Amino acid sequence: MSRDFELAELKLIADVISSSKFLTYNQSAELLHKIENLCCDCDAMQLRRNVFVTGRSKQPNKGVLYNVDTIQRAIAGENGKFKISFKYFEYDMNRRKKYRDKARICTPYALVWDRDHYYLVAWNDHRECYSNFRVDRMESVRITAEPARPLDRDFDLTQYVMTHISMFSGDEVEVKIRCDQSIVNAVLDRFGMDVRMIPDKDGEHFTLYASVVAEAPFYAWLFQFGGKAVVQSPEWVRQEYIDMLRDVMENA
Fold it and tell me: CB–CB of 24/58 below 8 Å?
């Protein structure tokens, strides 16, 4: 009997579901049960033995799936493209939700999966710029009657995602970084295969040229390599990183 999925393919899907942070424990279990129904009893038993739902850092907001659905419908715009409204929150020290001002009004352009989280890339009416929002921190997502703002013709979503480490919003700047050859794979993982890298004559280093948002996530990414990644320019980025390192040492 022919089937749409091989067992290995279903296992891959099941692994993604079980490890997804944006799904609650119950949502993961329910989806895995549906995956089992796509294969025969024998394969379902094998799938069940090899997949488990981890409770590690699971999403407490069960409305995330519905948020994603609403956002996708707004982006697709089958009945016309419109802006969305939503409430945005962060957690305080007591794990209570702290809402940001009033409801946000944005034009949604894309949903991006980055480091175990869903992000919305949108035009922020309040700030009049492109902004990123964690979907699991959005509530009361609604499609409004206000027409969406057209996407700028020169806006490159792929480039935008590659340069906004951890989806931090901000202005891009091109940096020049001298790197040890041992971190080349980490560089390619972060910036993609088309990033500009110039090998040094010593055969042990290369110079990386990349556009980044010079904010905390970029410096955190840089820090993991220690002296194997040295910012050469621009000078203000280099100095900002040095100041950050000095602050860490003084307060350690």
Answer: yes
pTM of the model: 0.64
From CA 57, how far away is CA 24, in angstroms rounded? 9
Cβ pair 222, 231 in contact under 8 A? yes
List the structure tokens of 61.
């907001």
Rounded-to-integer distance, Cα 118 and Cα 20, Å: 10
Q: What is the DSSP letter of 73?
A: H
Two tokens at 241?
Answer: 């990183």
Please check whether residue 148 is in contact with residue 79, taking contact to mean a CB–CB distance below 8 angstroms. Answer: no
Closest CA to 60 of 33, 34, 96, 16: 96
Least confident of 117-126, 150-159, 166-175: 166-175
Name the β-bridge partners of 176: 209, 233
Q: Which residue has the tokens 């409770």?
A: 55
CA distance 111 to 118: 7
Q: Give the pairing type, strands 172-180 and 205-213.
A: antiparallel
Please give the C-alpha separations between residue 172 and each of 54, 175, 196, in angstroms, as whole numbers.
37, 9, 16
From CA 121, how far away is CA 110, in angstroms rounded?
5
Peptide bond into 199 cis (omega under 30): no
d(CA 90, CA 41): 44
For the range 12-17, what are the long-range contacts, defined as Cβ-Cβ under 8 Å and sequence gap of 24 or more? 14/47, 14/51, 15/51
pLDDT tens profile 97-119: 889 778 999 999 998 887 777 88
